[in-house]
From TrEMBL:
Name of this protein: FAD dependent oxidoreductase domain-containing protein
Swiss-Prot/TrEMBL keywords: FAD, Flavoprotein, Oxidoreductase
Cofactor(s) essential for the protein: FAD
Top-level taxon in the UniProt lineage: Eukaryota
Lineage: Eukaryota, Fungi, Fungi incertae sedis, Zoopagomycota, Entomophthoromycotina
Residues forming coiled coils: none
Domain FAD dependent oxidoreductase, chain residue ranges per copy: 19-81
A Pfam match: DAO
Amino acid sequence: MGQETLEWNEKEHQYLGKLKVGCVNLHPDLAKAEFPDYYYRVGIRPFRDEPCVGQDDKNLKIFHNYGHGGSGYTLAYGCALKIRKDVKEYFENECRPRSNL
């Protein structure tokens, strides 16, 4: 799986300045941040042969939901519902405070 080379076109990417201003308005600390060119590469959607959705095998406090590629928008709602269900079950079963009385 390779990554395509992107050509930077200032005219096509003028909206990025507005996007940065909006982000700084929400989180003023971002005004000090540096934004190298590679941060401006938007629209690249990493994918796997099979998306990773569910609880981590080694650390049960970690839940994954990535690797959807171009199908991310299509799968987002269903995958989010699955993760929500998994997280809710985890907290209900594993993280419930137990009384020592």
